Amino acid sequence: MKCANCGNDNPKTLHDEGDTFYCSLCCHRTQTATGQDDLITCPYCGRLRDRKAFQCMWCGNTIGQNIPPTKDDYAELDRSLTEFEENMDNSNIRFWKLRDKKKQ
Ligand SMILES: [Zn+2]
Ligand SMILES: [Zn+2]
């Protein structure tokens, strides 16, 4: 392992993270497989940023915060939808529209 940024190859200051390792001397990540910088282009400022870092070191924007809904979230959604349908007046035209949508 050798830091792609500063050339540090001291195992005591390099932290193995599986697919990458982190250099505590320069706070830089390197890809284990390629030995290259582990960088992506920041969608906010367009500069190269640390892929695994929580925030962009340049603009401070966070990426990857859109956590996909869990099974519980879907269950909760189903519950409230069922409740909603049960409380609907059958004569309400929107109820039938909703039902038709669900059939498709
Ligand atoms: Zn380094
Ligand atoms: Zn940025």
Fill in the keyword field for this structure:
single chain; 104 residues; alpha+beta; 2 domains; two-stranded antiparallel sheet; 5 strands; 16% strand; binds zinc ion
How would you summarize this macromolecular structure in one to three sentences?
With 104 residues, the protein is α+β, with helices and mostly antiparallel strands. The chain has helices at residues 71-86, 93-103, and strands spanning 14-16, 20-23, 28-31, 39-41, 48-50.
Q: What ligands can be seen in this structure?
A: zinc ion
**Mean of all residue-level pLDDT scores:** 83
Shape: elongated
Q: How many strands, what sense, and barrel or not for the largest sheet?
A: 3 strands, antiparallel
Strands side by side in the biggest sheet: 1-2-3
What's the SSE pattern?
Answer: EEEEEHH
List the helices and strands and how they pair.
Layout: E1 14-16, E2 20-23, E3 28-31, E4 39-41, E5 48-50, H1 71-86, H2 93-103
Antiparallel strand pairs: 1-2, 2-3, 4-5
Bound molecules: zinc ion (ZN) (2 copies).
Structure, described:
This protein is of the alpha+beta class and 104 residues long. The chain folds into 2 domains: 1-66, no CATH class; 71-103, no CATH class. It has helices at 71-86, 93-103; strands at residues 14-16, 20-23, 28-31, 39-41, 48-50. The chain has a 3-stranded antiparallel β-sheet, with no helix packed on it. The termini are far apart. The model has no long low-confidence stretch (mean pLDDT 83). The structure holds zinc ion (2 copies). One zinc ion binds next to loops.
